[in-house]
């Protein structure tokens, strides 16, 4: 018996003889196979299909000296199918890339929404557990702030500086009434408004509002830009998937794909060089996208690499409540001075007895919010973003290599096999093979390419614009230096070496690095008056309180009121 190798060699030789020999005969003797394939391809019978070969004098593209099995109507139908095949091939070739971008864009947005909800939850828990008297009134301020954060991230025309200022403006009257000047009393709306307006002049929270602005601006803007850029990437692919096929390209595709059928050569494939000329001509306009697409992916990579440390949105959002706590603490410690300043600006309040509102935070939510399992250090937002960029980098030359990819993967005959050259079955294609891009098509023997494509030009303009945005939105931590206001006295400098492992916390009493382990407890309600001692050592921060004895080991960080560090597991 013949072994497998001998059988394959024999079968290949027989196939070559059949294909190559049929072209050297007088032509196909019957059109039955052509009819069957045509009817199957077009999903239905078509009247007027020839039973036997005939002269093809009426054909416009599939012209041959030999008798043909095609009519003018068949040629027209084949022309339509060739265009459809082209679009289908483009969509198939881009499907992996499109799925990669769209899946990660959706996951990124979903993760940001989750981070916002978690950060809002942390801030609400801060007020309910530590500043319970003002928690109810603070709830609307907290909710409005995080609503604005979400609106900004997802493209709304809101200003981070404005909503950060609005948050601290609204917070100051609450801190003043319940901590600095406490009592079961109520001040008038006019007096509270005066305190709110005075906040920016007397700076009760020191430089913390400016720090929040800096961190929010440098973390929210890159994330917002990244989302916009990913959505543009999807738009680019959707547009090129449905690119208009020019008249010249349509005729070339018909000649390459379906004209062999007219001669009964249903199994033939185009020669590699012939296929490259046709596809490079048809996709010449699209190839012009290649340098801009390459720069687009490189800019995404640079932006992603720069989003780390205190400028990682995950770090900033999940530590926001600690900065709020620091702000309230600073205002309380300077309470006497602030009270004198407020009295000078707004006068003494007219007080009326009332019942202090209590926190209405859902206890089940609190427990749910605090029972957060430690996350895998490898599954952070930054690590998943890096994984995405590494995958996307494989598609940097997608548009420049698309024509070659279509021919090599599917359309063209393998090297060494007889192939279709546009007129007949030959051993090899003898015409020169042109390169990619519009300029290279001047010598293309198969497709005439003229001018430019306005749709492609529009896409290029959009890519250029988003590249500028990406390159201009990379956070530069080494250039960020904030001076403390009059309430403090320290200088905060964040160096360019800050990363996810460094911590970068500069709040003096609470901002922690994002990868600290989660403690498994939450202190009971603590009032500032309960604090007896805050003792800081190199490796420990210990709090002795009358309300709840709590000791937490940290990494050279000082906790004030929040005894637990809460970390959201990586979700994206």
From TrEMBL:
It is a lipid-anchor; GPI-anchor. Residues 1-25 form the signal peptide. Pfam families: Glypican. Keywords: Cell membrane, Glycoprotein, GPI-anchor, Heparan sulfate, Lipoprotein, Membrane, Proteoglycan, Signal. One of its GO terms (cellular component) is extracellular region. PROSITE patterns: GLYPICAN. Belongs to the glypican family. Cell surface proteoglycan. This is Glypican-5 isoform X1. It comes from Pteropus vampyrus (Large flying fox). The gene is GPC5.
